[in-house]
Write the structure tokens for this entry.
Amino acid sequence: MAGRSLSANTRRPKAAGNLSKPAIVAAALDLIDRDGLEAFSMRGLAQALGVYPTALYWYVPNRNALLAEMVTVAMQDVLPSPRKRPWQAWLKELFRRYRRAVSRHPHLAALMGAQMVSNAGVDPVLPEQILGVLSRAGFSDRQMVHAFNTVIATMAGFVTLEFGPAPADDDGSWAKTFQHSLRTVDAARFPLLARNMPRLENRAFITRWQNGVEAPLDDSFELFIEAAIHGLELQRVRKRRTPPRG
């Protein structure tokens, strides 16, 4: 009934205090940065904030919604300035800024990548500006979806792999065992792998035991984004030169 006071069952818990959504998101990010995504729980977050778990749900409806809020905060500085510049330079800056954002919160790498795949919580400013840059670059409406998908995959794909968590092993035995297996690979069966192992170990996907926090793949990342930009350039030119069918 209108004008009626909240009952004891619907009144905000007193323990909520000065709680706010930004405070909850910031505390959740701190916990995930420290302990990882798998260890994160709403109950643990409430304990860190000194409130009852029910107090959190006045600000976020569930854990997934909170994770989406964290991704939004982590990505708040990803977009480059909208000032005019060559489209290639704008995209390269986007890719680098996204990588820096993930490096600050590496435990969110897989989650941030998943948000790029399909999530209504992603700020529409991001796809709008990417589409605008691609449009100014000369991609037609028919090409746009493929160019856009290429940009998103380039932005999120490499970085998700680079900063993905290594297996949890407090005593480091997994890393030592893996290093030994790499250094004793059968050269007769795998000659190219054995020959290149001194350069590959811990500096390439599959043959590493640390992620991008301890062993960043800077040069590989730069080659990756250069290749993606070059591919977009070729596709744009090729489509322009292809005569219409019929």
